[in-house]
Every structure is written in C-alpha cells, then in structure tokens.
C-alpha cells in the first residue's frame, strides 16, 4: 500500500515516464530507434562525432535511450564516455551529428535550455551547497523548478514541505534532512545530488560515475537507491560507471565505447560475452 509520501515521491520524480523497461537485445552496436517493447526514445543520438585538433574523440555514435530504460555507458579509460556526456548535455558542441531529446533537436541548444527541456545531469565533482542543510538543498532545487523563491522563504515549512520530504524519502536520506550537506559521507552526497535532480523532475537522468569516491561499504546502498529510482519510479537513466558489478545488475543495455566509437550496444550479458568488448578491456588493461 503506497503511503502519501511515496505517492508524492512518485509524483515528484516521474514525469512522462514509463515503468517496465526491457532487456531485449538489439543485436547491433548502432541501434537506432526504440525496439518494439522499449518506450519511445527519450534520447536519440545520430552519427554524433567530435574532433579536437584533428583527433577524433567521439566517432560516429548512433544510439538511443528508450522511455523508462536504464542504459549504462562503459568503456576503458579514455574511451570518450565523458566527452559523449558533454556533447549530450551541451557543454561541448559536436563536429557533426544530431542529438534529440524526446524528439526535439537540441544539438545547437545551450545546456540550460536542455535542462529546461528535461535533461538532468550529475557531475563527478559534487554540486551540493555544503553550508546548507540537506533539506534546504532539495528545497532550492524544488524552487528552481517552480520559480517560487520568494514564497518559499516567506512560507516554507521548517522541514521544507512535503515535496522535499518525499524526494528525501526516495533517496533514503530522510534521517539526514537536518544535517549540513557538507557533513554527509560521499555516498550520501551522491544521494543528495540525485535528490536535487529528482526535485527538478527531469525526463532523462544522466549520471556521471556516481560511485566515484564512494566507499566500498556505501556502494551497495547507493546502487539500491539508483535502481529503485529507475525501477520503481520509472525514470529514464543514462549512466557512466566503472563498477561493472553494479551495472550488470542494474542496466537494461550496455553501450560500450572504445577509442571514441560504439563497440557494442546490447544487454549486459551479451555485451560482456562479446569478444571485441573483452579485447578492448584487456587491451587497455582495464
Ligand atoms: N578538450 C579536449 N581536448 C583534447 N583531447 C581531449 C579533450 N577532452 C578529452 N580529450 C581526450 O579524449 C579522450 C577521451 O576522454 P574522455 O575523458 O571522454 O574519456 P573517458 O572514457 O571519460 O575516460 P575516463 O574513464 O578515464 O574518465 C582522451 O584521450 C582525452 O585525453
């Protein structure tokens, strides 16, 4: 039986999302368009390339992330994962190719425009306000979405209100609502960053190595939170991560990059069994 808090959390965290992503194999490294059981593409990359000083960093990537799907972007060090993320979020502009967010061509749009259209990203470095409380951090993110800053400061409930409570519940940080964000452990900071994203109700969540810097003891807990956000809330996720044991259990599909290109784009078991993928990892000593 869902509680008011979980219902509010679902409302806070999902918008135009679809539960029940599939694990169907596309059988292709260049999967274009959603498969028959996959939701409509929230993100579609078409022949995306980025070159710097003659070096091809991202090489003709074509892939999609379906509504409600969890895609993990993996590859050896220097494969181009962060560069691809930067293209997707608009921090860098592609040399060629197209980026569509829910059908809209955002290739030439600035990062804040993409964010307004529903693209939410966490960074490898922490983006929380360390001197503010955990609840206040989430409250600011809610404000940023609703544009009710003055009203918030005049009439805010001491605990930030039901939406803040619901989002904190979703990431299992309710017990830390009153703590200073700067006092959180690395794992809890990552949860708070996720909460800040969820408060903005993105239609696509981009996670850039959420396990980086997180202690071994906290990885399981953080994994559970991310998995719940995806599975229970139906959020669409594209995540870069090096911890394979985390991804195999969580991702619907793995997009494997190597030397800037997409080597495989399929379900985790098939990707890991692919001789080319194995060679790429062994060859780079990863
Ligand atoms: N602005 C840039 N100018 C020149 N080369 C760049 C630039 N940004 C990235 N590179 C190069 O592009 C390649 C891919 O880098 P990128 O950081 O995207 O890889 P990655 O897969 O995210 O690596 P890691 O797993 O180590 O974070 C690297 O060889 C890097 O040195």
TrEMBL record:
Matching Pfam families: ABC_tran
Record bears the keyword Transport: yes
GO molecular function: ATP binding; ATP hydrolysis activity
Keywords: ATP-binding, Nucleotide-binding, Transport
InterPro entries: AAA+_ATPase (IPR003593), ABC_AA/LPS_Transport (IPR051120), ABC_transporter-like_ATP-bd (IPR003439), ABC_transporter-like_CS (IPR017871), P-loop_NTPase (IPR027417)
Domain ABC transporter: 43-284
SUPFAM superfamilies recorded: P-loop containing nucleoside triphosphate hydrolases
Chain intervals for the UniProt region annotation (Disordered): 1-38
UniProt KW Transport keyword: yes
Stored PANTHER family: CONSERVED COMPONENT OF ABC TRANSPORTER FOR NATURAL AMINO ACIDS, CONSERVED COMPONENT OF ABC TRANSPORTER FOR NATURAL AMINO ACIDS-RELATED
Protein name: Branched-chain amino acid transport system ATP-binding protein
Species, as recorded: Nocardiopsis aegyptia
